[in-house]
Design brief:
elongated; 51% helix; 168 residues
Length: 168
Amino acid sequence: IRERKQADVALNESEAELQEALTAGHVVAFTWDPKTGLSRRSQNAPQILGLESQEGVERSSDFLARVHRQDRGYLAAQIAALSPETPSYLISFRFIRPDGQEIWLEETGKAEFDAQRRYIRLKGLTRDITERKRAEERQRLLIRELDHRVKNALASVATVAQRTREGS
């Protein structure tokens, strides 16, 4: 009995450490059953995705309905295209939290198939990459501004060179 209790304590500690690591990395672990359409997400899903579920279980349609409408079809197509030959995917998409906040997610999934090639389950990780996407957008904006200023400076130099040539 003591060994069993020690194993339970070790398991609980391990689960707590895993949840802390997932939360620190802004990552949600998930499994999805294509037969029932039910998903199970790690305990930090409400914190990252804003989705409240009963006992960690939700309908996959609830998640998909929150994917940005422009990205929804591509995500669904990636999941539908999974096969024993290509069992995994990696995709970035926008997600609308229940509070209306738009976030960027990057999801990696791997499907499991039985011996008859039937789709059994999908397991994966969903990571919040909103800050990275915002930084990339800021960088694109700065590059466009820099490009504009360089073109203006070159145009000024060309004008000065042209006028100097005309006056000599």
